[in-house]
Amino acid sequence: MRTTIIRPGFLIGLKSTATGGVEYRRRDLDSQAVNEARWETTRVIYDQAEHDAAGKARNKARAEITKLCSATSFGLLCPLANEPELDAAIKRAQAIAAEFNATAKFTRVNVYALKGKIAETDEQAARAIASEIQGLIQLMTDGIDKLDPSAIREAANKARELSMMLGAEEQEKVAGAIEQARKAARMIVSRVEKKGEEAAIVLADVQRGNLEKARIAFLDFSDEVAPTGDMPAVNVQRMAGLDVEESAEEVH
Questions:
Q1: Would residue 1 count as lying in a domain?
Q2: Which of 30, 71, 97, 196 has a CA positioned 20 to 30 A from the CA of residue 117?
Q3: What number of CA atoms fall less than 13 Å from residue 172's CA on the CB side?
Q4: Could you tell me whether strands 75-79 and 9-19 are parallel, antiparallel, or unpaired per DSSP bridges?
Q5: Closest C-alpha among 163, 173, 170, 167 to residue 212
Q6: Do 111 and 49 have their domain in common?
Q7: 144 and 221: one domain?
Q8: What is the residue range of 111's domain?
Q9: pLDDT at 120
Q10: What is the mean pLDDT of residues 228-241?
Q11: How many domains, the chain?
């Protein structure tokens, strides 16, 4: 029987909007060609200070929610154990929007959050998370090969955030890979960038055993699994399309 790799949690569909306060005026221009159209557009912001404040309010509201979640390519993930904190964060985000809207004349900020529950037996979600972890492990490995400490650390940070959705055994494997990748990043900075050692020599000394173990550990879970009689708690691909941040500009 296939064991699960994920902890129960939520996939969050987050949408934030800041609309109004901006007008686009279009003026058609003469064109010499029949199949060609030319025009110029002028943007008019009614109140620049309010326009800027709307963007700040929207970003602040989103941050209340996103700081509790792990950002992935298919949406925001939050462990089930963090549900009280998540619900409180959603209320704070909506309160920030409401506070701005109470005094704004031209612009309105809205924040919407949709929680989709992921069960620990949800194989579709497990495959999606396994695929994401595999990709991050590959990015860490590629960063080592390219002697790019920034890329290594960026992928390691994302993997650490996503690992909160994993079971204890898988968390340990990912943690080992992250530790090894960060050690490689420090070695590259110290020996290649600061001391000028030959790259090939330094790369030969980099240990990759934990990275390879983690990569192999998630291979089985990313394979296609035959459908079962149980319906998944949430459609990962469908929810992924709900993570939206809209501009503070609107045509009138």
A1: no
A2: 97
A3: 2
A4: antiparallel
A5: 173
A6: yes
A7: yes
A8: 8-122+232-252
A9: 74
A10: 45
A11: 2
Q: Give residue for tokens 């492990």.
A: 137
The owner of tokens 């619900």 is 87
Is residue 2 in some structural domain? Answer: no
**Would you tell me how many other CB atoms lie within 10 Å of the CB of residue 82?**
15
Lowest mean pLDDT among 138-142, 143-147, 244-248: 244-248
* 149-179: pLDDT as tens digits: 999 999 999 999 999 888 888 999 999 999 9
Confidence (pLDDT) at 74? 77
Question: In residues, how long is the chain?
Answer: 252
65 has pLDDT over 50: yes
- For residue 43, what is the DSSP state? E
Residue 130 corresponds to which tokens in the numbers above? 């396994």
The answer on 112 and 19 residing in a single domain is yes
Residues 161 and 242 grouped into a single domain: no
Inside any domain, residue 82:
yes
Residue 246 corresponds to which tokens in the numbers above? 């809209």
